[in-house]
Design a protein that fits this description.
The complex is a heterodimer of chains A (307) and B (226). Chain A has 307 residues and is an alpha/beta fold. Helix content of chain A is 36%, strand content 28%. Chain A has helices spanning 44-51, 70-76, 95-106, 112-120, 136-148, 166-183, 194-200, 218-224, 236-245, 269-278, 293-302; strands spanning 4-15, 18-29, 33-37, 59-64, 80-83, 154-158, 186-190, 203-208, 211-217, 227-233, 252-254, 260-262, 283-290, 304-305. Chain A has a six-stranded mixed beta sheet with strand order 5-6-7-3-8-9, sandwiched between helices. The longest helix of chain A has 18 residues, at 166-183. Chain A is elongated. The model of chain A has no long low-confidence stretch (mean pLDDT 90). By secondary structure, chain B is an all-alpha fold. The model of chain B has no long low-confidence stretch (mean pLDDT 90). Classes of the chains: A alpha/beta (307), B mainly alpha (226). The A-B interface holds A 49, 52-56, 71, 74-80, 82, 84-86, 88-90, 92-93, 97, 100-102, 104-107, 146, 150 and B 3-4, 6-7, 10-11, 14-16, 71-73, 75-83, 222, 224-226.
């Protein structure tokens, strides 16, 4: 099934006592940009390393374009471009020479692809400057160029905007969107800068402690990050009691910092304030607001729901 | 595998590593050879320093294999869809061409020096016979590099091996030990103690090569890479 670029079925990875990936079931569809979100050690890089053939699963199955088995998977990996945990470059070579090594090893006959790709990432004028003298951002751009050299159908970028300045971040975002739009490239990006991920991705995968805890589209995320009343109080338990007993609602969540997100009464702020005041709940903040991806992520990995 | 070898060759011509190591090896060899040229031919003298210069092969294994695991350049080949065997065989082939080329080339240069300075004949038979032992010498640090996939442990284990080799060639009964050790074969050549029938020595070299090449491949075949 060519419309499914990658699929995992019960994919598991165990390192002695540590379960790095726990029964991961995931499907990546062609032409989408996936934002891969998780804390350090959540299992993002482990999964990426398995997709790229650097690590082997201890259980479950990985499929690339419907193919599985070591031999078939390795063949399919020729259709992937990747940048994992920083670019693997040769510091004693120039940008062009680094690209030439990659061109030779990938067996790409067209030499002009090097200049085209370097231009795409804004590195066409680095001349004879050795990579060891590049800034972190320039190395990152070159790493992206290496990943793009074979015009991959599936691009995997692990922390691609590390070390980039603000204009570099915008450039990479625009580049990712352009590659997705013009070439129909499927892209999987992991990043700690969730705001940036929100601006780039069309779909989101949240991973925590080796388990995929949620997969959702941009539209679903927007729905879930919907407007709510944020209640800050020194006595959240009493406030919850008021919401349940006086306002007769259980449509709220308690956040890790003890604030309460109430999804009802959005146009009746004074009613909520009144009910809380009536029961002498000391409120330090009350406002209508919406979640960011960051807040939503924190809610998913650590926030307590009322149910 | 051809693509991996071509990429490796391209890197060699754009890096100072191999040439720097070759020059260092040649320089030290030249100094050590001069200690013996009064008593014997240049080429025989050139066989003496080989065990003492093995640390250059350790350095080559570090820059061509250990460092490339450390910097994730070898991982780049695998992520690009090359089979692990192709990457392993390509890397090992180019490393062996480099390391054996340095040892053999230097010995050959010693022979040319003897020919030009004293009219000595170049003993091609002995040079050819030593090729398998040079390969057997070179696969040991390569094994450590494939096993540890880094710089530090490859250096440490390579240097320990080097020290043990130096110690072993200074023990009594070196001739008895030397036949079982690839680097000992060059010392036997230097001492003109090579047996007429060299089949046994050749088999010992081939056994070393087989053990360390197979061991190296096992170390990379199914291992998780960072």
């Amino acid at each position: 099934m060519e419309s499914i670029v990658m699929e995992t079925k019960g994919l598991t990875k165990k390192y002695r006592q540590t379960l790095a990936l726990d029964n991961v079931n995931l499907k990546l569809e062609k032409g989408k940009i996936y934002g891969f979100i998780g804390q350090n050690g959540a299992g993002k890089t482990t999964l990426i390393r398995m997709i790229t053939g650097l690590a082997f699963p201890t259980g479950g199955e990985l499929q690339l374009w419907g193919k599985t088995g070591d031999k078939e998977l390795q063949e399919q990996r020729k259709r992937i471009g990747s940048l994992i945990e920083g670019p693997a470059l040769y510091p004693y070579m120039t940008a062009r020479q680094n690209m030439e090594v990659q061109r030779i090893q990938r067996g790409i006959p067209d030499k002009s692809i090097i200049d085209k790709t370097l231009k795409l990432v804004g590195l066409s004028d680095t001349g004879n400057k050795k990579v060891r003298n590049f800034s972190l951002g320039m190395k990152q751009r070159l790493g992206i160029a290496v990943a793009l050299l074979n015009t991959p159908e599936f691009l995997i970028l692990d922390e691609p905007i590390n070390g980039l300045d603000p204009s570099g971040i915008v450039d990479v975002r625009n580049l990712i969107k352009k590659l997705n739009k013009e070439y129909g490239m499927t892209i999987l990006i992991s990043s700690h800068i969730l705001e940036e991920l929100y601006n780039t991705a069309t779909d989101f995968i949240i991973i925590d402690k080796g388990r995929i805890i949620e997969e959702l589209s941009e539209a679903e995320l927007n729905e879930k990050c919907k407007q709510h009343i944020e209640i800050k109080t020194l006595d959240p338990q009493k406030a919850i009691m008021v919401l349940e007993q006086k306002l007769h609602t259980d449509n709220f969540k308690i956040m890790p910092d003890n604030t309460i997100q109430l999804y009802d009464f959005l146009n009746e702020l004074e009613k909520v304030a009144g009910a809380l005041a009536e029961e002498k709940v000391l409120v330090t903040g009350l406002a209508v607001t919406g979640d960011t991806l960051e807040q939503y992520f924190l809610t998913k990995i650590g926030g307590a729901s009322n149910d | 595998m051809t693509k991996v070898i071509r990429a490796e060759v391209y890197k060699i011509f754009h890096s100072f590593h191999l040439w720097g190591i070759a020059l260092g090896y040649l320089f030290l060899n030249t100094i050590l050879v001069h200690d013996h040229t009064d008593e014997m031919s240049f080429m025989r003298s050139g066989m003496y320093p080989i065990p003492f210069l093995i640390f250059f092969m350790v350095a080559l294994a570090i820059v061509m294999i250990g460092n490339e695991f450390d910097q994730r350049q070898i991982q780049g080949y695998i992520a690009a869809g090359h089979k692990r065997f192709e990457v392993f065989a390509g890397k090992l082939t180019v490393y062996l061409l480099g390391s054996v080329g340095i040892m053999l080339g230097t010995l050959f240069l010693d022979g040319i020096a003897g020919l030009l300075l004293r009219g000595e004949t170049i003993d091609f038979g002995t040079v050819l016979f030593l090729i398998p032992s040079f390969i057997a010498i070179a696969v040991v640090p390569a094994f450590f590099a494939f096993l540890f996939k880094d710089i530090g442990k490859t250096l440490g284990s390579g240097l320990i091996t080097f020290v043990l080799m130096i110690a072993s060639v200074n023990t009594a009964g070196i001739r008895e030990h030397a036949v079982y050790l690839p680097y000992g074969h060059s010392l036997l050549g230097y001492a003109e103690m090579l047996p007429a029938d060299k089949t046994g020595l050749l088999l010992i070299d081939l056994a070393w090569i087989a053990v360390f090449v197979i061991g190296s491949y096992i170390a990379v075949r199914r291992s998780d890479l960072k």
